[in-house]
Amino acid sequence: MVDLTTLGDDSIAAKGWIKAHKWLILRRLSQLGILALFLAGPVFGVWIVKGNLASSLTLDILPLTDPHVLLQAVLSGVVPETAAIIGVVLVLLFYFVLIVPKVLAVYF
What we know:
single chain; mainly alpha; 2 domains; three-stranded antiparallel β-sheet; 64% helix; 10% strand; membrane; transmembrane helix; transmembrane
């Protein structure tokens, strides 16, 4: 059984706290940045992103929709709007053009 109280201590000792927690820090900063974009509208009146994490409109131009949420809606009988379909296409394009090749490059 792994002792969870000492898990990662060797990495912290070798790299230092910041380098050992680099991805955790970047993930939290990314989450706070997205939250700030969504809260800027109601708090400051600057609507950078409207909507929620399932479907949003960025700068009143760019629709972004979670593909899993749209798939769930379609399977339950909802007819999606054009903006939602465009949003899913943009998200999937981003994913398959920028993310998938980097992941495949690691394995092949």
